[in-house]
Amino acid sequence: MEHPIIIQGGMGVGVSRWQLARAVSLHGQLGVVSGTALDVTMTRILQSGDPGGHFRRALGSFPFPDVARRILDSYFIPGGKAQARPFRTVPLGSAEPPRALTDLVLAANFAEVFLAREGHDGRVGINYLQKIQFPTLPALYGSLLAGVDYVLMGAGIPMAIPGVIDQLSRGEPTRLRLDVEGLNPGEEFHSVFNPADYWTSRPPQLKRPRFIAIISSTVLALSLAQKASGRVDGFVVEGPLAGGHNAPPRGALQLNERGEPVYGPRDQPDLEKIRAIGLPFWLAGSEATPARLAEARRRGATGIQVGTAFAFCEESGIEARLKSAVLSLSRRQELDVFSDPLASPTGYPFKVLRLEGTVSEPDVVAGRRRTCDLGYLRRAYRKPNGHLGYRCPGEPVDDFIAKGGNVAETVGRKCICNGLTATVGLGQVHSQGYQEPALVTAGDDATHLDRFVSPGKDSYTAADVLAYLLQAAPNPGQTNQGGN
User: Fold this and answer.
1) What is the CATH architecture assignment of 6-318+454-472?
2) What's the pLDDT tens digit per position in 70-129?
3) Separation between Cα atoms, residue 391 and residue 368, nearest integer Å
């Protein structure tokens, strides 16, 4: 199987939804679904009536019908819930989740990949974040059950993931060491998953997808290539102009006059050394032009990963009103992308679009009551009694301090989980009708979205993006194998 020239970024919570990935795959490139919070997005779509019946159809093909039936009985609402009613919540992730949550994660990842792959033989990938560890094992197995072709992972060092994929594809029990604050020397905690818990006979052998690590440094690429627990099949080399989470600058943190992190020469990966590893690689971060694609390939890259351009196309999950506002501002050259060093509870810089009525505005943040009811970015910590606790700098400050957190970590933090969920129209409704505000993230390329919009139109499609990017490629199906 040839590698694609274009990898569509796996963005946000529900931005890179199955409709977008499918559209990209149908045009011969790698469509990627976001694997973040799929249990929440699927259950909220079911509670909204499951327009089109897509998730019910996917669950109808899930290999464990009893699990699918319990999910539908719990969450599907014919015709959808009343707008003012809150969504039913799902259990918070943890090192030892309840079986109902594991079922949800497994089924939701299966369903998203199933729908993206339905009815064609194009390539489909799924993107996970290393920092969100609790659901990783059942999430991976769900995507493998649906036949995913590529697994991509960033936001950390995914050293153990290739070996985990190998074990899951063979139907073997596996475990993943968890990052836990405050451990004693030699102490470890793990999450565990056994495919045999779901089968009445021996679990079947599944196709092993290719694993692509999303990295920002040469050292990390070399380390993964040499020391990962299994085969690494390539790299996405992501620069600080990309949307979402970015790796922090190396060295002491310096801020510019706008309060954004300053990146320097030390933050530029050595592409010659990465090319010498002999694995395919793709460049990401403001690469979405034919000239940048041609330059990437000249430098030995197989192609580019493109996120922001796809994030605002018709097939993405971002609410239509937000897309329209962003496209209008981009057309007028009034769009402001701010790399916020504090917003994310992860401590990674997070690119935020400054938009009226969203979490980018101080008064919107001030009017929101802190809550942590999704909890994907909670950190595990060791309690004095040796058990695990969970805390997030974005939760109520008093709660965070009571769990041993440092109050300084809470300053400027925003609830990324709820903000991103609201961006795709699935925000929670609280008492007195208060609805979670959106938080829109994008890369610096958002200022040039008008290049994809044809004269006389107000929107564009994934096909428009691909047609624009591939006009300089010698052959959309002919790829550079990245030094092999």
Assistant:
1) Alpha-Beta Barrel (3.20)
2) 999 999 999 999 999 999 999 999 999 999 999 999 999 999 999 999 999 999 999 999
3) 19
